[in-house]
Design a protein that fits this description.
The structure holds 2 protein chains of 2 kinds.
Chain A: H1 2-25, H2 31-35, H3 61-75, H4 80-86, H5 88-114, H6 118-146, H7 153-159, H8 166-195, H9 200-226, H10 231-255, H11 265-293, H12 299-317, H13 321-336, H14 349-362, H15 365-373, H16 375-382, H17 389-401, H18 406-413, H19 415-420, H20 425-432, H21 434-452, H22 462-485, E1 496-498, E2 501-503, H23 515-526, H24 531-546, H25 552-575
Antiparallel strand pairs in A: 1-2
Helix pairs in contact in A: 6-8, 6-9, 6-10, 8-9, 9-11, 10-16, 12-13, 14-20, 15-17, 16-17, 16-21, 17-22, 17-23, 21-22, 22-23, 22-24, 23-24
Chain B: E1 6-17, E2 20-31, E3 35-39, H1 46-53, E4 61-66, E5 69-70, H2 76-81, E6 82-85, H3 97-107, H4 113-123, H5 139-151, E7 157-161, H6 169-184, E8 188-192, H7 196-202, E9 205-208
Parallel strand pairs in B: 3-8, 3-9, 6-7, 7-8
Antiparallel strand pairs in B: 1-2, 1-4, 4-5
Helix pairs in contact in B: 3-4, 6-7
Classes of the chains: A mainly alpha, B alpha/beta.
């Protein structure tokens, strides 16, 4: 440090000396010359350090990380127990919701386990396979998008650029990603196998199989990240997705009697253990490779995942899942870079609809997802859980329809682009909902046989099946509209005092947006009441959402505008000379 | 000769954020074929006035009338007449530059959308980027795309927030010329600007906001 200070002083002295030299030279010059700008020579930088001094010390990465941890802890104002204590209301609420969820699972499991039809048995054995494939596809996609090994922008700039052994800094990140994949995968494996009415041994086997396979593929993605190979990861994701689709189709085919598929419980359990062992092998081999290659991951690649994660974290704190999707979509668009432009069709509102059709042709992948979700009601019916079919299918449909609402989403999130279009808000919303509405209608037609009870013992009349299918599609469609167009929490409005501190009103509603519409429309079917109630509620919900939802601020504004208009008209009227009407009485 | 009917009338506009008053009793009128520039130091409230004029923000008190009617951002008639390029511009992540312009031109019912879009793309020098998605554009290119959106649609009032930002000297000269031509056809312009050459080119009347710097 003292050496550096000396260096600085020397540099300054050099400058001062040069300036003094320049000033000394001036008196001897003529007045005319003095008027000319004095050319000050560039200061000479004298570097008197040796390059070796930068390599004088060795960094102990572990100590460095501990030091960073100490600094972070030093800035905290509350410990974890105090934070949990403050959030006890939320924790209590979560505990209640969790208890309700478990009760629902137990009930559903009881209902499913009593079903002894071939379809039920096959579905029971096949659905965990579909869940496994789905989890693997998701884990691979998430790992590819985020890294899975990542670093924040600050770490990338300050830490990773310094002469340290990066692998020692990043190793904890690698194992964290693998552990998260294990826990997430295991939880979904357990949930699905429990929901399908499997026994204890099967639940344990599928829990471990899904968790280990999931962590294995994440370790595989990390190993590929070290050699910057993306196609292998994409291939694994694609295979997993296709496997999931095949499993779901097998469920439907078996349930509807297209083909007979008999899988015994013992075969299912042993195959689950096989998957678990394969998962362990993949985890160990890929984990070792990933650990060895950690030092080779480029800084830019690490930081790219980190910046995405921090954006997602910000959106997650605001419980704004739509914003999280926006971030992912934006990133996808940046990766794609450019497209082959296509000219639009139609004029006025039609052009918005045509543009959505052109989007479908350009990005057909969501269509495949939508087609796959048509299998869900068949699978749920095959499990003997027909009562919940509408709700479960509509929830899945919400997720499948969201990608078709890009126009509505962008026009809802900020007013800038909406202001450029010469239509009212409800006109734009209607136009932006046409293509997804048509797709939801086609989906409804495709699932009518499921609601009729094809493949299951009991049959619902066709008319009622058609009604149930369309109510379900409407619930998913309206839920998706609500999900993409609901306003985010308003942080500029007066806050609400809670045990966790000040919170913007409506923040917690973000959690259930979209799902609230599904519940509102389908709860009557679950309760065994007439589907006509659902129809009426769906119509009302759509009408409200078409106008832009119940936005108190906008309604107040509309009221003010109307009052201003009325006042202007009155004033205008007052300025006109009153017309005198003379009524003459007939004599 | 363009008519001199008032397009925008701002009367006794006040805007406060809590106790902090940003705009106090501001009144001005913009006629057809006229450019009015809001000037003032940073934070003087130029953008706030523009946001109130386009309906993005509500004034605390006072009135803003466009073509004789109170501003209503949700009204189709207002959206048809007023083109805005202010800081809340958003783009579709999956539509290219040219597709954005094409969509807007068609939405406004322009039958010769293709030719107009090509011409505007050329003017804002975004032809090489026509197939790019907005996420890949630089800040300057996004700014030019924002300007282009105002030129591919019919308009009676153009509201611009610092249109010279991120434009080079040639770009500013082009903008001055382009806006000047439009003014001769009766376009009214309200803008916030720090660029003397642009104000001079348009012969803009200035409305100074806040105290002078220093």
């Amino acid at each position: 440090m003292s050496r550096g200070r000396n260096r600085n002083r020397k540099f300054k002295n050099q400058n001062r000396r040069q300036n003094q030299d320049g000033q000394k030279g001036q008196p001897g010059q003529s007045q005319a010359k003095a008027a000319e700008p004095v050319k000050v020579p560039d200061p000479e930088l004298i570097i008197d350090h040796e390059p070796e001094e930068f390599w004088a010390g060795e960094v102990d990465e572990k100590q460095l990380l501990l030091l960073m941890g100490d600094w972070r802890k030093g800035r905290t104002t509350r410990n974890i127990w105090q934070a949990l204590g403050d959030a006890y209301v939320m924790l209590f609420s979560l505990a209640v919701i969790l208890a309700m969820l478990i009760s629902l699972i137990v009930q559903a499991q009881g209902q499913a386990s009593t079903c002894s039809a071939t379809g039920c048995r096959t579905a029971r054995e096949l659905l965990p396979w579909a869940a496994l494939a789905g989890v693997l596809a998701f884990a691979v996609a998430a790992a590819r998008i985020f890294g899975p090994v990542l670093a924040s922008a600050a770490e990338g700039f300050w830490l990773l650029d310094s002469p340290i052994n990066r692998s020692r800094v990043l190793v904890k990140r690698l194992w964290t990603a693998v552990a998260v994949a294990f826990v997430g995968g295991a939880a979904i494996g357990a949930l699905i196998s429990a929901l399908t009415g499997s026994g204890g041994a099967a639940i344990i086997a599928w829990t471990l199989a899904t968790g280990l396979a999931s962590s294995g593929v994440v370790a595989f993605a990390a190993a590929q990240q070290g050699v910057e190979r993306v196609w292998t990861v994409k291939l694994v994701g694609g295979i997993a997705g296709l496997a999931g689709l095949a499993a779901l189709l097998a469920v439907v085919g078996s349930a509807t009697g297209w083909f007979q598929l008999e899988i015994t419980t013992s075969v299912a359990i042993s195959s689950a253990w096989t998957v678990a062992i394969a998962g362990i092998l993949l985890l160990v081999i890929s984990g070792i490779l990933a650990r060895m290659r950690l030092n080779r991951i480029r800084r830019a690649r690490l930081m790219s995942g980190g910046s995405l994660a921090s954006g997602m974290q910000g959106a997650a704190f605001a419980l704004d899942f739509a914003l999280m999707r926006d971030i992912l979509q934006e990133r996808d668009a940046v990766e794609r870079g450019q497209v082959r432009p296509t000219r639009g069709r139609g004029l006025g509102l039609q052009t918005l609809v045509w543009r959505d059709v052109q989007r479908l042709l350009r990005f057909p992948k969501p269509l495949l997802t939508l087609a796959v979700t048509a299998v869900v009601p068949y699978a749920v019916e095959a499990l003997g859980m027909g009562r919940f079919s509408s709700t479960i299918s509509a929830l899945v449909l919400v997720a499948a329809l969201v990608p078709f609402f890009t126009t509505l989403r962008v026009l809802s999130r900020t007013k800038g682009l909406m202001r450029c279009l010469p239509f009212t808000t409800s006109q734009v919303r209607t136009a932006a909902s046409v293509v997804p509405g048509v797709l939801a209608g086609i989906w409804a037609i495709a699932v009518v046989p499921a609601f009729h009870g094809v493949g299951s013992g009991s049959h619902t009349p066709w008319v009622q099946a058609v009604m149930l299918a369309f109510v379900t599609a409407a619930a998913g469609y309206i839920g998706a509209i609500r999900w993409v167009s609901a306003k985010s929490a308003d942080y500029s409005a007066p806050m609400v005092a809670t045990q966790m501190g000040a919170m913007p009103p409506g923040l917690m509603f973000n959690l259930v947006r979209g799902l609230d519409m599904v519940a509102l429309i389908t709860i009557w079917i679950v309760l065994g009441l007439s589907p006509w109630i659902s129809v009426v509620l769906a119509v009302i919900a759509f009408a409200v959402l078409r106008m832009g939802g119940i936005n108190q601020e906008e309604m107040q504004q509309m009221q003010k505008d109307a009052q201003a208009q009325l006042k202007a008209e009155r004033e205008g009227g007052a300025r006109k000379p009153a017309e005198r009407k003379v009524v003459t009485r007939k004599k | 000769m363009a008519s001199r009917s008032p397009v925008l009338v701002v009367k006794d506009l006040n805007k406060s954020y809590g106790d902090h008053t940003v705009i106090q009793s501001l009144s001005f009128t913009v006629h057809a074929g006229e450019a009015v520039a809001l000037t003032g130091r940073n934070g003087a409230g130029k953008s706030t006035v523009l946001r109130c004029v386009v309906g993005a923000d509500r004034p605390t008190s006072g009135t803003v009338e466009v073509l004789g009617k109170p501003v209503s951002e949700t009204s189709a008639e207002f959206r048809r007449s007023v083109a805005t390029v202010i800081d809340d511009m958003d783009f579709f992540p999956d539509l290219s530059v040219v597709e954005h312009l094409d969509l807007l031109a068609r939405a406004h019912g322009l039958t010769d959308a293709d030719a107009l879009v090509d011409e505007v793309l050329e003017e804002v020098q975004l032809v090489p980027q026509s197939g790019q998605l907005p996420g890949t554009l630089s800040t300057g290119q996004r700014r030019r795309l924002g300007l282009a959106t105002a030129f591919v649609r019919p308009r009676k009032l153009l509201v611009l927030d610092e249109p010279e930002a991120r434009l080079d000297v040639e770009g500013i000269a082009w903008l001055g010329k382009r806006l000047g031509e439009e003014m001769t056809h009766g376009l009214a312009i309200l803008m916030a600007s720090h660029e003397p050459s642009l104000l001079e080119a348009l012969g803009a009347r200035t409305v100074a906001l806040g105290g002078s710097r220093g």
